[in-house]
């Protein structure tokens, strides 16, 4: 069973930065795409960023492009989300997710592309 544990959330002022981490169990972490999603109160879960299993390609929601950076360290079984220039509208619970397909993937923007999810970490941006 794959387990994903997020950390790094917290309260930050607008314009500040946070770095989220997601530690994954399992020996095949490096062979799956990883993604970050978020869900604000009363809203649906939405895509934030994704990275392919090799790390060669990354994908971002338009709302975070240029401010957030996703990366991975396969030696540590960890994926990161560096969040800069945070805005109050970034306030949400952030979830990491592991891809469903070994060494592949197609629609990284869709939650259906992912088979395992973490428990989430709260990010609150004050104005």
The outline comes out as globular
How many DSSP helices?
Answer: 0
Gyration radius, rounded: 13 Å
In sequence order, what are the helices and strands, one letter per element?
EEEEEEEEEEE
What composes the largest sheet?
7 strands, mixed
Proportion in helices: under 10%
What's the total count of β strands?
11
Mean pLDDT: 95
Uncertain runs: none
Strand percentage lies at over 45%
- Which structural class should the secondary elements be placed in? mainly beta
What distance lies between the first and last C-alpha atoms, to the nearest angstrom? 40 Å
Task: Write up what this structure looks like.
The chain has no helices and 11 strands. The strands form 2 sheets. Strands 2, 4, 5, 6, 9, 10 and 11 form a 7-stranded mixed β-sheet that branches. With 127 residues, it is mainly beta.
């Amino acid at each position: 069973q794959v387990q994903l544990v997020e950390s790094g959330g917290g309260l930050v002022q607008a314009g500040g930065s946070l770095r989220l981490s997601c530690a994954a169990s399992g020996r095949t972490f490096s062979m799956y795409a990883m993604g970050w999603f978020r869900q604000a109160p009363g809203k649906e879960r939405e895509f934030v960023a994704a990275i392919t299993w090799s790390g060669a390609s990354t994908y971002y929601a338009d709302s975070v492009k240029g401010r957030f950076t996703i990366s991975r360290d396969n030696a540590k079984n960890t994926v990161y989300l560096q969040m800069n220039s945070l805005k109050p509208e970034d306030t949400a619970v952030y979830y990491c997710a592991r891809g469903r397909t070994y060494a592949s993937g197609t629609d990284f923007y869709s939650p259906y592309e992912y088979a395992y999810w973490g428990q989430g970490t709260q990010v609150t941006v004050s104005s």
